[in-house]
Design goal:
alpha/beta, globular, binds 2'-deoxycytidine-5'-monophosphate
Amino acid sequence: MKKLPLIAIDGYSSCGKSTFARLIAADLGYIYIDSGAMYRAVTLYCLENGIIRGDDLDISALHQSLDQIQVEFARNPLSGLQETWLNGRNVEEQIRGIDVSSVVSRISQIREVREKMVGMQRLIGKNGGVVMEGRDIGTVVFPGATMKIFMTASTAVRARRRYDELISKGIRVKLAEVKKNIRMRDQQDENRTESPLKKAPDALLLNNSEMTVAQQMKWFRSEWDKLVQDHEN
Ligand code: DC
């Protein structure tokens, strides 16, 4: 069977990676994979099984549990959206909550967790036909990806987008708090020892601070056409 292309999208938090990756996947008829959801599912498992209690993390219990954690994705036939399942249970909503969000960066820094997730991600993407989004997809998970995109946007723009998203969900926050949180997450993502966030040298840079979603899709299509043409010549 001929392997289909794989598109790796990495970048900073709250810069619209999911929206963009989902639209590209729909456009090409590929599967969209949110790798962050996998780290979130492991974090939920840790919270539910007493592996994380407040500030305490039982690292040896986590190591022992890794073999019992199965994360899968399934398409919701009603919404058409890909949803995350943890050990046979749909956890899509729970993994987006504040409990998971506030500790997921601790869990995603653990080498053994990353090794397990990277293994699962490689399995999911092995036949291509996938748009995978995260922090290390083009650098670590699929360094040979057909196309790599690294997304960024100014802190002010990302904070405003995140703020609007939270407010629309009825969550009351202050813009300054959101901005502070984004700076902290950038700091954590860029400076961790295991697979820090960085642009792969061969990734295309997309700074979407001043771009609409439609403009980003136009940019993608023109880059994709160039790639297809290069491949044919
Ligand atoms: O994209 P997100 O906010 O849902 O990601 C959740 C967490 O997982 C965040 O702390 C970054 C981390 N992550 C990662 O380390 N590697 C990935 N490939 C994807 C996400």
